[in-house]
Write a structure and sequence with these properties.
The complex is a heterodimer of chains A (170) and B (253). Helices cover 76% and strands 0% of the residues of chain A. Chain A is built from ten helices and no strands. In chain A, α3 packs across α4 and α4 crosses α8. The radius of gyration of chain A is 17 Å and the shape is globular. Chain B has ten helices and no strands. By secondary structure, chain B is mostly helical. The chains are: A mainly alpha (170), B mainly alpha (253). Chains A and B meet through α2, α3, α4, α6 and α7 of A and α1, α3 and α4 of B.
């Protein structure tokens, strides 16, 4: 990131190539497939436009995920405000993932994640799917590390209830 | 939730110390966490993103071609606009003397300095990246400043409460609207945060509040509360509401 800030345009390409998939994957889990792709583009545009806000010495990955999280929150806030999407529409959204994977499992996880409060969902998606450490998540969400851990713990507990059928089913 | 419960989170998906395994075996909450974590692993990964399309590549390239502007430049611009307007306002309102507040000079200047600090520091704090704790303390200090304005009044009652009040209200709004517009514009360069917008709104409202504080001779609590402080708080609330509806140019924290 510092190389890009200092004028090396190829560094932006490297950042983009390295992080576009994790960021798109993260956003897809938060806002759904089509919107996730749009928001990941918005995330990289934000990164470029706001590079003057990047603090030298700060870790890049939490900063990038903070941008992505803000983009997702903005999207969800606007959607709530405009009442564009009802819960039924959310449930009808296409499952996300590669065709060879198990769509039933993915859909169940997606629905379960959607039922979590936003703060718990963000912590779990960053931790479980993006492999961010709790310190990085805390930085991205501007929270203390212990607050993030409490949210993740409660979120996992709720998920266990929501996904109970997956391992106790027929 | 115990320390071991939080420790488990650090060790999900890894081999655990015997003591931690023993804790998990005894703790229903942690068993639920482990089970959910394992279940999520069975969910397939999210899709790979498609190759970037040409339009996006062009947008990214154009954005990268523009020079990066450090955040504090916007902060300084807004603070400078605030100072210019407050100076112009005080100059325009001045009749016989620069200060016509009838309270004791020590109190008048102490509150004026605090208001001036809010005018200058407010935009910088609202626009600075990070600084969550600082924003929290700043936000908490604004109501105290408003209380200081009310209790620091001279107690002098206007002859016509409504007429005097309306003229103060007009001055407050007139002087604070432009700073509010400027700071809202600056705030769109980063992600919307209520705390940022509220601090920015309070600092914009402090422009009118400072000019009134120095100029207005009336110092009764009801006058100060209704026509100096309430419009100030209203402007801060309006700033938050307007900012929340505007699109962000960037989602950077």
């Amino acid at each position: 990131m510092l190389r890009f800030i200092d004028g090396d345009r190829t560094a932006l390409d490297l950042l983009y190539l390295r992080y576009r998939e994790p960021v798109a994957s993260y956003l897809t889990r938060i806002v759904g497939r089509g919107n996730g792709e749009d928001l990941s583009q918005a995330t990289f545009l934000s990164l470029v436009r706001a590079r003057g806000r990047y603090q030298r010495g700060a870790r890049f990955r939490p900063w990038l995920y903070a941008i992505a999280t803000n983009a997702a929150r903005d999207f969800l806030r606007r959607r709530r405000m405009e009442q564009l999407a009802s819960k039924r529409e959310m449930a009808r959204e296409e499952p996300i993932g590669a065709p060879e994977a198990d769509p039933g499992m993915e859909r169940a996880v997606h629905r379960a994640l959607e039922q979590l409060p936003e703060s718990q969902r963000l912590a779990i998606v960053m931790h479980r799917f993006q492999n961010l450490s709790f310190a990085e998540i805390a930085q991205a969400l501007e929270l203390s590390e212990s607050a993030v851990k409490v949210r993740a713990h409660r979120g996992y507990e709720k998920l266990r209830e929501l996904l109970r059928d997956l391992w106790e089913g027929p | 939730m115990t320390r071991e419960c939080l420790l488990l989170l650090e060790n999900l998906g890894r081999a655990k110390e015997p003591s931690l395994s023993a804790h998990v075996a005894a703790c229903q909450h942690c068993q639920a966490v482990v089970k959910a974590h394992e279940t999520l692993a069975r969910a397939r990964s999210a899709p790979l993103w498609q190759a970037k399309d040409a339009a996006f590549a062009q947008s990214l390239s154009q954005a990268a071609g523009r020079p990066a502007r450090p955040w504090w430049i916007d902060g300084l611009v807004v603070a400078a606009v605030n100072l210019l307007i407050v100076a112009a306002g005080i100059g325009a309102l001045q009749s016989r003397a620069a200060v016509t507040n009838l309270a004791s000079p020590e109190i008048v200047w102490a509150i004026a300095i605090l208001l001036a600090a809010a005018i200058i520091a407010g935009p910088m704090i609202a626009l600075a990246p990070g600084g969550r704790s600082l924003r929290k303390y700043t936000l908490a200090s604004f109501p105290l400043l408003a209380v200081a304005v009310v209790v620091g009044g001279s107690g002098f009652q206007p002859m016509s409460w409504i007429r005097a009040g309306i003229s103060c209200l007009v001055v407050e709004i007139t002087l604070s609207v432009v700073p509010a517009i400027f700071v809202v514009w600056a705030l769109t360069t980063n992600a919307f945060r209520v705390s940022r917008a509220a601090i920015a709104g309070f600092s914009a409202g402090a422009v009118g509040a400072l000019a009134l504080h120095l100029h207005c001779p009336f110092g009764s609590i009801s006058h100060l509360l209704c026509f100096h402080v309430l419009p100030w708080l209203g402007l801060a609330a309006a700033t938050v509401a307007v900012r929340s509806r505007l699109r962000s140019k960037s989602f950077a924290p």
